[in-house]
Design goal:
Elements: H1 21-31, E1 38-42, H2 48-56, E2 61-66, H3 69-81, E3 88-92, E4 103-109, H4 123-134, E5 135-148, H5 154-158, H6 172-181, E6 184-191, H7 194-214, H8 221-239, E7 243-252
Parallel strand pairs: 1-2, 1-4, 2-3, 4-5
Antiparallel strand pairs: 5-7, 6-7
Helix pairs in contact: 1-2, 7-8
Length: 254
């Protein structure tokens, strides 16, 4: 069986997270206002936001770190197609203890786990400490991190991915407090909308759903159908409307 017989991966997603085109454009404008020269993207995936920042900041270079070679290859292809191949590097390595910084702009979009081996609930504070280490004086950090809109009930937790606990995330105010405690001032606080979440979750599985509709008799169809149905259940019966994502634009305290 060849890979071409299996569904493609995440081709319907522009960003690997609940991020709209409108919000991305605002973020790029805000983060390039002070003309960063170096950009570091932790857990970058295919680094779409980093590439847009480099396009808007022609004197900047960027490095994206991730452990998924498929995503990194997509990022490299996109960089070459946009004439950014000489300014964007996509490196297959962990961000834990990285020596790639400091950088004028550090991105960590839904990837705080890529910065630390600390388990929840201490992982966010540990990641923020690393981000403070990795940003230059006067630079900026963009952290996209999960939070609970309200504390989930035991029944709601049971509908989410195995092992989920209420302690895995805190509220938005507590998340911002952690950023302040790590040595940042929150220059901008915003959160993903329900529409952004719906677009992300739908796009996350659209390739598999359409493939299953057309290839339901494939030898791998039952396995893929079970995975897709389980993930949809986690979303719609578990964290729908409960799990948020904050986008924090952070400035290090001098």
């Amino acid at each position: 069986m060849t890979d071409t017989e299996l569904p493609p991966r995440l081709t319907r997603l522009t960003f690997h997270g609940p991020l709209s085109e409108a919000r991305a454009a605002r973020l790029v404008a805000r983060l390039t206002r002070n003309s960063p020269r170096t950009v570091l993207d932790i857990g970058c995936g295919w680094g779409e936001l980093m590439l847009r920042i480099l396009a808007a900041a022609p004197d900047a270079t960027g490095v994206g770190l991730d452990t998924n070679e498929g995503d990194l290859a997509r990022g490299r292809d996109n960089a070459r197609a946009r004439g950014l191949g000489d300014r964007a590097a996509f490196v297959q390595e962990s961000g834990v203890g990285t020596r790639r910084g400091p950088a004028d702009l550090v991105l960590c979009l839904g990837a705080s786990h890529a910065l630390t081996g600390v388990q929840p609930p201490g992982h966010t504070a540990a990641a923020l400490a690393e981000l403070r280490r990795l940003v230059t004086p006067g630079g900026r950090v963009l952290l996209a991190e999960g939070f609970w809109h309200r504390t989930p009930t035991r029944a709601e937790l049971a509908g989410m991915w195995p092992g989920t606990s209420a302690a895995e995330f805190g509220g938005l105010a507590g998340l911002v407090d952690l950023a302040v405690g790590a040595g940042f001032r929150p220059a901008w606080i915003e959160t993903a909308t329900l529409e952004e979440w719906e677009d992300f979750e739908s796009g996350y599985q659209c390739d598999e759903e359409e493939w299953l509709a057309a290839r339901g008799d494939h030898p791998k169809a039952d396995e893929i159908r079970a995975q897709v149905d389980q993930h949809r259940s986690f979303w719609l019966r578990g964290y729908y409307g409960l799990l948020g994502q904050a986008y924090l634009t952070l400035v290090p305290v001098g």
